[in-house]
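User: Please fill in residues for this 560-position structure.
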């Protein structure tokens, strides 16, 4: 996941200061309660790049060196030295991601080894240590992502759908890597030396493995970011969907003692992560991007011990004995006492020829920096009349040569917040077309332009050259995977009082109670956020939904 936190700063000096934290003797003694003491000798390797182990190593008297392996044959590049009172490890201590560094002992002595479960307890029970370690691992991940040498290299075409999907995954998961365009001299040399062709793109290369036509799912598995069973083998709460509602549910569930699993089929952040800027979220007067907001929440969830897996698609929900069973795309079954459905809603596509073919090759459902950089210096169009479209238009105006906002309705202010309308109308880089719709897509394999029909021009169409079409129209609930849970005619999930006695049936009468707030037609299965029928489609409302649903989960678990 992205790791930009203003409290830490982005300057190398600020990051280095946060990353090189040294514990006091008292702090080290408290940490020792969660550790086993080991003698180590100079030259001993504690772990290597791509190792599965995620133990924390605290230095008592030993000194360690962390290195990034060289892409050439060599000794690697020094990343950081850890002396007495310091520790080895970065954000993978929380995410479980395979090691991206090799750590070797340079001065023999003693270290304290803290295994993952003990580390989770330390982070939950020792507030002062937790804050110090969290700031340090975030700063180290930031420094690691800025490093010129990386243990993971991706060669691909950023303008292709597969290349853009991979870049979005890597960015939103915060995976340290080096991206190399396939037509660059270095990218071409790497493809030739690895025996790969353009048909093998995107390709992932590490010191031990070459993976052609790599996908986010395959890379996630290689990095150990996919689902791993909890220590108990089952969960108290499984949250499906890691948007604002799901993240809030996971944070509140784990912080209140529930063994919590959080799954998302694409990447952490959901639809909110596609927002270039959110300015009306309480507590952030200067605004922040959707990615920054959801990244903070994900780190918070990990801090409280949430088992987060992404991308990790869910294909079914059933019941076995007293547990619910969540089935993953690979067939894995997660037994859980309660479930919160927070899969949100997806932007709709326009019914135009070539839409699927051009998705990711000029047609986008997000307007983050990645997509904006792909169309920098060229004209773009944004379709939609709500806040997400307005935020996208303003953000894209900083990159594109010109932005055309295409609104089907007659008035921009009907569905968009007044502050956005005012900014858009006063921005000379943005042209607003109301009463308009896109009728044709031009260009293959990349978008080159669109045709528009407007009420003012009658049946006559006009062509608009554009390198990017950003679509933010309507939303459909992501519930196609659900079975056994009552849905409304549009696929949204009704809860509690929205369910009639006839819909609930005999089973609920035998239980002797009505559904709890946010509870669906299935006891112990709850819904929160945009997927819930008649929910307020706002980030703050989704966060409130997730937190409130956890309260009902506690009430439900108390009845078992």
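Assistant: Residues filled in for all 560 positions:
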């Amino acid at each position: 996941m992205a790791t930009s936190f203003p409290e830490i700063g982005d300057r190398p000096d600020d990051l280095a200061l946060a990353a090189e934290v040294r514990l006091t003797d008292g702090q080290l003694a408290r940490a020792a309660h969660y550790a086993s003491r080991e003698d180590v000798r100079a030259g001993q390797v504690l772990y290597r790049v791509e190792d599965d182990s995620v133990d924390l190593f605290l230095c008592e008297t030993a000194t360690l060196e962390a290195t990034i392996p060289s892409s050439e044959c060599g000794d690697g590049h020094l990343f950081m030295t850890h002396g007495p009172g310091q520790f080895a490890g970065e954000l993978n201590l929380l995410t479980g991601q395979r090691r991206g560094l090799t750590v070797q002992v340079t001065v023999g002595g003693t270290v304290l080894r803290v295994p993952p479960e003990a580390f989770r307890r330390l982070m939950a029970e020792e507030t002062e240590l937790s804050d110090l370690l969290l700031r340090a691992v975030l700063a180290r991940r930031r420094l690691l992502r800025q490093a010129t040498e990386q243990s993971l290299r991706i060669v691909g075409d950023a303008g292709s759908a597969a290349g853009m999907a991979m870049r979005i995954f890597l960015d939103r998961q915060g995976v340290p890597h080096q991206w190399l365009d396939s037509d660059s001299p270095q990218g071409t040399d790497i493809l030739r030396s690895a025996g790969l062709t353009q048909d093998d793109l995107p390709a992932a290369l590490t010191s031990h493995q070459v993976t052609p036509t790599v996908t986010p799912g395959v890379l996630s598995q290689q990095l150990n970011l996919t689902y791993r069973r909890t220590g108990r083998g089952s969960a108290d709460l499984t949250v499906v969907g890691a948007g604002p509602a799901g993240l809030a549910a996971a944070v509140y569930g784990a912080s209140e003692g529930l063994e919590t699993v959080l799954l998302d089929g694409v990447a952490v952040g959901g639809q909110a992560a596609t927002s270039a800027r959110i300015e009306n979220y309480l507590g952030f007067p200067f605004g922040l991007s959707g990615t920054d907001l959801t990244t903070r929440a994900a780190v918070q969830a990990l801090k409280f011990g949430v088992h987060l897996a992404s991308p990790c698609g869910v294909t079914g929900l059933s019941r076995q004995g007293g547990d619910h069973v969540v089935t993953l795309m690979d067939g894995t079954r997660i037994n859980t006492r309660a479930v919160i459905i927070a899969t949100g809603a997806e932007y709709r596509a326009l019914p135009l020829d070539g839409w699927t073919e051009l998705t990711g090759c000029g047609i986008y459902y997000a307007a983050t920096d990645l997509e904006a950089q792909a169309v920098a210096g060229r004209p773009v169009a944004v379709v939609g009349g709500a806040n997400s479209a307005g935020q996208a238009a303003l953000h894209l105006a900083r990159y594109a040569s010109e932005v055309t906002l295409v609104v089907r309705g007659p008035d921009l202010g009907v569905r968009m917040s007044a502050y956005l309308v005012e900014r858009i109308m006063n921005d000379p880089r943005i042209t607003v077309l109301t009463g308009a719709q896109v009728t044709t897509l031009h260009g293959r394999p990349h978008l080159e332009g669109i045709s528009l029909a407007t009420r003012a021009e009658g049946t006559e169409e006009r062509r608009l050259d554009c390198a990017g079409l950003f679509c933010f129209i309507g939303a459909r609930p992501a519930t196609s995977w659900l079975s056994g849970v009552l849905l409304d005619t549009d696929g949204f999930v009704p809860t509690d009082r929205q369910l009639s006695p006839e819909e609930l049936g005999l089973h609920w009468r035998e239980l002797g109670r009505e559904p709890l707030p946010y509870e669906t037609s299935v006891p112990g299965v709850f819904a929160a956020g945009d997927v819930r029928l008649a929910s307020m489609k706002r980030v703050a409302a989704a966060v409130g939904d997730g937190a409130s649903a956890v309260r009902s989960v506690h009430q439900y678990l108390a009845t078992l």
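For context: The mean pLDDT is 93.
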